[in-house]
Specification:
The protein contains twelve helices and 16 strands. The protein is an alpha/beta fold and 500 residues long.
Length: 500
């Protein structure tokens, strides 16, 4: 299917404007004057547009402190809600997306890392995805962009509750990268520079063709995942390199999609969400947090989240409570009147902040587990967080501690004989271990792990038991990769004073 750029631009020509701050690249974002003046009666069930980026960092948007030009996303934040403590459920692609769409840790659905091309499986077929719930409730369902939950036909979106699919099966760094409509391959190895504009065209046309039936549109951008790419219109325009250009084009895309909703008169009937799957890889900004993608530090987990819903979310809302991508499915169930899945959820209903309802206090009390994607097929647990307290019980023993990427050891993680405790409210960069000051918190979170672990599949439980036996040496300094157990220290090596 050739990209009809001329037809696409022509159909949206009336919306050409230049950002007020005079950025160096053109924009098709619609102005607020184009918003529907007669919204009419609100639908009983909202449309949902859920947009998710690949590897977008917590600090990559202007509304989160970046100098990158992201005017449309900044306007979305100003018109709606911005979360400041929203975490992914996992720091790697497939597992994070499985958790988002099921409301359950990816480890429960055989999704512990990232599926490659021709993977024999995918996210377990007996799992209920948000798309299944929307479809069963009478919604029309559409998936656009990167899928990455299995590339065999039975794992593709049209067999997982989506009525139609247009996109690619996995990440942009995997080869070949076929462009697919439903289950038919349109191009064996698509032009990666055209992915964002093609996704945008598909999304805008879908919104324009909307009838009376409510819809759920899941749009998964392929960027700014490395190697980041942008189309010719945006390439070299931001002064922030390839990643900056890719983010700028995503920002343009969001403006086009919001504009299509406004022109169709659906602003009061549509919840629009924007987020990322996890933290940035080698490039991108984790927002002064420690760690990046694939690590269990906050830089691998903390991500942006924006939501806009005219008449339901007041403009300029900023929420600092603790939330997770695990909470999205139960929240959409509550907002859209969907049925609950049969399997128990790990997420908590956070619909109060999305739909003008009372907040659910259980959100802040929910414990969250941080699994490492490296070694032991991604089965090993590193941390638990409850409220602002984060307990690290294990850490990778190979590789640079800030990224923990490309490690291959069968014993990739070691149990910390001195677990580390961080107060993320006071210390979001995880710079100061305060375990000695709060032994009662260490004990509480340790008990939480022991309570939660038996609820996981046997391979996860076994990996946890083996990890506890693979102890790092007691001489390991706080915040360091664990030293091998019983290893002889070189003269002058620093070690904790309470080595006992």
């Amino acid at each position: 299917m050739p990209f009809r750029r001329r037809d696409f631009v022509k159909s949206l020509a009336a919306s050409w404007v230049v950002p007020a701050f005079g950025s160096a690249f053109p924009s098709l974002a619609t102005t607020t004057a184009a918003r529907d003046s007669k919204p009419g009666k609100r639908q009983s069930r909202p449309n949902v547009i859920f947009m998710i980026c690949d590897d977008l960092g917590y600090g990559d948007l202007g509304c989160y402190g970046s100098k990158l030009p992201t005017p449309n996303l900044d306007a979305m934040a100003a018109d709606g809600l911005r979360l400041t403590r929203y975490n992914s459920a996992h720091p790697i692609c497939s597992a994070s997306r499985a958790a988002l769409l099921t409301g359950r840790y990816g480890h429960r659905s055989k999704t512990t890392g990232a599926f490659g091309p021709n993977s024999p499986g995918g996210t377990s077929l007996d799992e209920t995805l948000a798309s299944n719930l929307f479809h069963a409730a009478g919604y029309h369902t559409k998936a656009i962009g990167k899928w990455h939950l299995g590339d065999k036909p039975e794992y593709l979106p049209t067999n997982r509750g989506f009525d139609s699919f247009y996109g690619v099966p996995y990440s942009d760094d995997m080869y070949p990268l076929p462009l697919i409509r439903d289950t038919t391959i349109l191009e064996q190895d698509t032009d990666r520079e055209l992915l964002t504009p093609r996704y945008t065209e598909e999304a805008v046309q879908y919104i324009q063709s909307h009838q009376d039936k409510p819809f759920f549109m899941y749009l998964a951008f392929s960027y700014p995942h490395d190697p980041a790419r942008a189309s010719e219109r945006f390439r070299g325009k931001t002064a922030f390199g390839d990643v900056g250009d890719a983010i700028a084009e995503i920002d343009w895309s969001v403006g086009e999609i919001i504009g299509a909703v406004e022109r169709k008169g659906l602003t009061s009937d549509t919840l629009i969400c924007f987020t990322s799957d996890h933290g940035p890889w080698y490039q991108g900004n984790p927002g002064l947090l420690r760690g990046r993608k694939a690590s269990t530090f906050e830089g691998g987990f903390r991500i942006p989240f924006l939501a806009k819903w005219s008449g339901m979310i007041d403009p300029g809302q900023v929420d600092g409570e603790w939330h997770s991508s695990l909470d999205i499915l139960p929240s959409l169930v509550a907002l859209c009147g969907l049925g609950l899945p049969e399997k128990p959820l790990d997420g908590v209903d956070m619909s109060g902040i999305l739909g003008g309802r009372e907040k659910n206090a259980a959100v802040e009390q929910k414990s969250r587990l941080y699994f490492s994607p490296m070694g032991k097929k991604g089965l090993e647990l590193h941390c638990i967080r409850k409220r602002n307290w984060k307990l690290r019980v294990a850490q990778g023993i190979e590789g640079e501690i800030y990224t923990n990427d490309r490690t291959t050891s069968a014993k990739d993680s070691a149990w910390l004989q001195h677990p580390e405790l961080y107060d993320l409210l006071q210390d979001p960069a995880e710079s100061y271990d305060v375990a000695k000051l709060h032994p009662e918190i260490v004990a509480e979170l340790t008990r939480e792990i022991e309570t939660l672990m038996p609820t996981f599949p046997p391979d996860v439980v076994q990996a946890y038991a083996e990890l506890q036996q693979n102890k790092g040496d007691i001489s390991t300094p706080p915040g360091a990769s664990p030293r091998p157990f019983g290893a002889r220290l070189s003269p002058g090596s620093w070690e904790p004073q309470d080595r006992r």
